[in-house]
Every structure is written in C-alpha cells, then in structure tokens.
Write a structure and sequence with these properties.
alpha/beta; Rossmann fold; 2 domains; nine-stranded mixed beta sheet
C-alpha cells in the first residue's frame, strides 16, 4: 500500500508533543512491513540546519487560499528510510513556534490545500491519506469537494486520526469564504454550534475516524470527554475505531539509551539502581530507601495536577521524593516550584522540555505518576514500563488500555478509577507497600518491562483498517 501521513509536526523535524512521536515512528513500522509510507508537514523555521541540508527542492507552485493564490515550495528529504515532503511558505511557517498565532486558521487552510496540490508533482499517489488532528482536517473536506473526481485522484481514501479532541480548530463563519473557499452549499460540513469547526469537517468527510486508544473511542461519545463534538460523533460511530499508540522502542531502550549513565535489562536490573543514584545527584535529591516518583508532563488541568496539589504534603510525609519535568500553566509551574523550594532535597522541578533529562527520569525513578482527568492515549506510561518504572495512573483513555492494576499480583502498575485525590493517594500507598518488598517489586518491574508497546502491533491494526477501506472499492 501507498500511505501518506499529513501532519503538522513529526520527529525529528518539529515536535511539541506526542503527535510528533506518532507521525515520526508509525511510518517506520509500515515501511518495515513492506509498505510505502511517506510524511508531509510544514517547513518550519525551527527545523535544524543539519536536517535542512539534506532537503531537495522539488518544485514551486501556487495554492488557492480562497480568492488568493499563494506561493508554495515543495521540498523532499529522506530520514531513516522514510520520505518526507515539506510545504514551504515563509509568511506562514518562518516563525518562532509551531502554533498559537492569530492566523493559524489561514496557515493550515493553506497547508491542507497544498498537500492535495502537491500530489500532482511528486510522483506519488497514495492509496490512503491519513490526516492527524484539526490542522489537517480540511484535507478530506477539500478532497470530497474539489479533488475526488479529478484525474489522478480517484480512489484515494481519507482517514483522520484524533489525538486530542479538545483541540478542534474553531473559527468564525466568515472564514468559510474569506480563507477556506468552501462553497456555501457545502457550509454544513463545517458548521457546528454557530462556528466553523475544522475537526468536525474532517469527521464528516473522512472515510474512517481513528482515535489513539480503544477506550478513548467510546469515551468521546460522552459529553464529559467530547468537548462538544459528541453529538456528531454519535452519528458517525460506524466509522469510528480506537487503536492504541505505540512507542519507539529503539529510542527508549534501557539497554542502549545514550542519555543514561548505566544500561540495564530485564535479566540484569543492577544498572537501574545506579541510574537512580545518578538522578539524585543530578537533581539534588537526598538519597534514601524511599521511592522516587517521576513525572514528565504538561502542567495543564487535564493532566490531574489538581489531585497532586490536594495531597502533596501527605505524599512527602510518606517518604516520597519527586523528580518533575514539564511546563504549562503558570499556576501549576508556580505550585511545583514552591514545593521544590519548601521541600529541598525531596522535590526537584525542572520547567521546560529537556528530552535528555526525561530519559534519565524514566530510568532513575521507581514509579511514574499520571493521574490524568483525561488521556487520549499517553506515551509516558508505556515508556516508563520499558524502563521498569512502575506507572500509577487513573483509569481513563489509553491509560486504562495499557496499565493493569497489580492488586491481583499479575498487573504491570497501579490504577484508580474516580477522579479523586484520596483514591490516587490510596494507589500510591499500595505501590509503596509493594515497593517495600524487594522480591514483589522486582517481579512487578519485570512484568512491566515484558510488555510490548512497540509500533509493530499497532501498525498491523492500522494496516487492517486501511485494507478494509480499500477492499470496499
């Protein structure tokens, strides 16, 4: 099969979160299975020169943005066997940062139209275009309106993968004619609750809707999780499917991780204690027999930070030490920084995104805390298990699908159901109790490390979904 991933970010070129990990890793799994999967993304200013040097200029074209024609440069590069295409327009993409600009709607309207126009010039006609999140949700809309019956475009199937339904691309109705160039008789495709909703347009016109975990697929039918889109999704259940994300097991490998001080494996765990000791020295944590809880997260409400705030002192009194890495809302950053100042030697907080340190926190911590209010998939809990660091999670989304509670002595972590600080505290107490029994904890670590969350299994489910669509021709 020929597959094109359309995404606003992908490692190693540009990343702001888990979306980039997926669009950078899943194509490799497809190619290893004999399929031709390529990626198209914007040519951002932030892409390092070392990666730009390998790009080849393909062609420059013009792209319609409603009544305007905008310059579009097409570049191409190959990284680790995967072909990447880059859409260039300095006015839209030569900026500091990826998102959060006043004209994001116009920027990604241009990008989505450019992706479809690009296919005429790159010698690659995909069987499947897999779009990711609202930034690419207009691709199936434009395809259904303008391209479906053009020569060379027939038979292409469009899929949209929803990584986080909270972000939908909602704008005023004037954007239909001023930016998108959508005929008024097609306005109903994007009209929702008095706004133009780009993600809703993708949901309407895509051949299949995929979420990043099975649990999230049914959760977003509930108003609590759907951020207003439950009414349209309930009518589209026939094309909704959840597929659990995977992780890059080469990047996150305790046996050869270049960012850790000592390698270790499921057969020889001695190096983990060395990693823990080194983490304490690096972060200024006191060395003791108690566990270290690691957190690599965004400081936003749906990550469950409020639960931690409620019982933080109880956790410190239990002998827990914290190694925290993240950034986000100022009130949460201020909270963690205040705790680090108040409990010096027991709490370390690093604000920002430091990939190298995240690896050392995964390797050097004993437990990993994710008390999320909602979590479409979550990758951190899978990564932590890869390093024998036991996750403590709330049962939601992909956390429910990947972590089994150790209450029956056959789990790979600790879970709690209700969004309640005392329930989270109880799960941490149970984890600390098992941690005090070295034999029990070692067996738990090994069970966690045996879990296979590589992209290979998820890639097979994706490929089956693609084949199912193409076989319906």
């Amino acid at each position: 099969m020929k597959i094109l991933f359309a995404a606003s970010e992908a490692v190693p070129y540009a990343a702001s979160g888990g979306l980039a990990d997926v669009t950078g890793s899943l194509p490799k799994a497809f190619c290893e299975k004999g399929h031709d999967c390529r990626v198209v993304m914007p040519l951002y200013k932030s892409i390092p020169d070392t990666l730009r040097d390998n790009m080849i200029f393909v062609k420059n074209i013009t792209v319609d943005v409603s009544w305007r024609k905008q310059y579009c440069g097409i570049f191409k590069s190959v990284f680790e066997g995967i072909t990447y295409y880059f859409i260039d327009n300095e006015y839209y993409f030569s900026r500091d940062g990826l998102y959060g600009f006043y004209d994001d709607c116009e920027r990604f309207v241009f990008f989505d139209r450019a992706v479809l126009e690009m296919l005429k010039y790159v010698g690659f006609t995909p069987d499947i275009i897999n779009c990711h999140d609202w930034q690419t949700a207009l691709i199936p809309v434009y395809y259904s309106i303008y391209y479906k019956y053009q020569q060379g475009y027939g038979g292409i199937k469009n899929i949209i993968t929803i990584h986080n339904i909270e972000y939908q691309g909602k704008y005023g109705k004037e954007t239909l004619t001023e930016l998108m160039g959508i005929p008024m008789y097609n306005a109903s495709l994007l009209d929702y609750d008095g706004y133009v909703n780009m993600l809703k347009g993708g949901i309407e016109t895509a051949d299949r809707i995929i979420t990043v975990s099975p649990s999230y697929a049914w959760e977003i039918l509930d108003p609590w999780y759907a951020h207003g889109l439950d009414r349209i999704l309930v009518t589209k259940q026939y094309k909704l499917k959840g597929i659990l994300n995977g992780i890059d097991t080469d990047l996150y490998d305790p046996e050869k991780d270049r960012y850790t001080v000592k390698h270790y494996s499921i057969d020889d765990l001695s190096g983990k204690e060395i990693c823990k000791s080194a983490l304490c020295e690096e972060l200024g944590l006191i060395k003791s027999d108690g566990p270290i809880i690691g957190m690599v997260t965004r400081f936003v409400a749906h990550k469950g930070i409020d639960l931690i705030r409620c019982v933080f002192e109880e956790l410190i009194n239990m002998g827990i030490r914290f190694a925290v890495l993240g950034s986000g809302d100022k009130m949460y950053e201020d909270f963690f920084c205040e705790m680090a100042a108040r409990y010096e030697g027991k709490v370390s907080v690093t604000t920002g995104f430091v990939p190298e340190l995240s690896h050392r926190i995964y390797a050097g911590s004993d437990m990993f805390l994710m008390p999320s209010q909602s979590e479409p998939c979550g990758l951190a809990q899978m990564i932590s298990m890869r390093y024998g660091t036991i996750p403590i999670v709330r049962e939601t989304g992909g956390l429910r699908d990947s972590v089994r509670d150790n209450g029956g002595s056959d789990g790979n972590g600790f879970t709690f159901k209700t969004y309640n600080a005392n329930d989270m505290l109880d799960a941490i107490r149970r984890a600390k109790r098992d941690y005090s029994d070295k034999k029990v904890w070692t067996e738990l670590m090994k069970r966690a490390m045996k879990c296979d969350y590589s992209w290979s299994a998820s890639a097979d489910i994706y490929l089956d979904t693609y084949r199912e669509l193409l076989d319906k021709e």
